Amino acid sequence: MKGYRFWVIAGLALMTNGAALLGFGQGSVGALARAIEANHSIAHNIERANSQGLLAGNPPIKAEVDFLGPFEVDCMALGMCNALA
Predict the structure, then answer these.
(1) What is the pTM of this model?
(2) How is the chain split into domains, by residue range?
(3) For each of the chain's 85 residues, which pLDDT tens digit applies?
(4) Which residues are CB-contacts of 76 (< 8 A; sequence separation ≥ 6)?
C-alpha cells in the first residue's frame, strides 16, 4: 500500500495524456485545451469586430419607423414648417 498514491496519480496521468503518448494527439488534454483557447480567441475577435463598428465615429443606423418619437415634430401636420426652420 506504500505506492498506492503514486499508482493512482500515474493512472490518472496515463488516462489524461495516454492518447498523446501513443501518438494520437487529437485525444490529448493539451489538444483539448488548445481547441478551447482557439474557440475563445475566435469569439473574442468577433466581439471586438462588432464593437469597433459601434464606435463614436460611426453613429448607429437609424431605422425608419412609421410613428414619430416623443421629440420629433411633423411640421407639415402642424402647419408650422416656416416657424420651426
Answers:
(1) 0.37
(2) 4-56
(3) 578 899 999 888 888 777 777 777 666 677 778 888 999 999 999 998 888 776 767 666 777 766 666 766 667 666 666 665 5
(4) none
